[in-house]
């Protein structure tokens, strides 16, 4: 299905969201609330990155809203000098959907965590993504329940010893990227909290995307799961583990680009560049409509972070749920006269004895 053109103005990559003549700075997006996360929490970096890149959008602060659920990350709206809604556990995508449908002039963000989004909020997440609601969902993944003091989460690795799994977790964890692609989200990406440049690029692209945008952010919890992603931040280890996804470029990595992603029998494999023909190296294209390509990329590596793709996995265009809903309402208005009395006294009634 192609996108429906409702004639909304195209502004800074955002359809229908009013711009401002005022020049914003990062400090303009900082609220007067004391930021209350644990020292060293990765949430600080994400918050600062968000406040730094929002001025580049040229969007009025009153046309930006952050909706959160429950968890450490869900304090985010308090610290943004925009509109915000601290909702209930797992239900942020549902509330954000209502905002997106009713208010096309808003840029709507959902801030959530691996517990909030993938446990109690799992159904809300996948349905918002499959409907392609025009919201930007940022999932802070620290592989632990931080707010409730260290229980294992839906992304904790197997064997994880926590307060709720003293002998090790028996659960097989979700791969959030694979989950989002399985729901056919039109924009899917991953970033590290410590990579401010990469995170800014992903957030900018996600914000300018028309439709559901899902961004997984690996984020450190220094109290209950400290060092969960240290291997991706170590200078020597990161080079051979992080697989950067750059549109239009061959997927190579390593300190000297000595490794590459190649097509295997049932997906993608990792090979040494010296051992293969250069033509067999996969060239990254996130605009491929079939999600199986991006899904195959999401299966590279594993729980041990042996190989971890970062960047944009998928970026395609499809009609958004909110655009289609407004178009349907407008069509009904043109073709049908509203008659509340006829609805109330119509044939679809019954008598209770």
Task: Please explain how this structure is put together.
The protein has a domain at 10-228 and 320-344: Thiamin diphosphate (ThDP)-binding fold, Pyr/PP domains (Rossmann fold). Strands 4-3-5-6-8-7-13-9 form an 8-stranded mixed sheet, with helices on both faces. A 3-stranded antiparallel sheet has the order 10-11-12. Strands 1-2 form a two-stranded antiparallel sheet. The protein has helices at 43-53, 92-102, 114-120, 122-131, 176-182, 196-208, 235-241, 291-298, 321-335, 340-344; strands at 10-11, 14-15, 64-68, 83-86, 107-113, 136-141, 187-192, 213-218, 242-245, 252-253, 259-263, 268-272, 308-315. It has 353 residues and is of the alpha/beta class. α2 packs across α9 and α3 crosses α4 (122-131). β11 (259-263) and β12 form a beta hairpin.
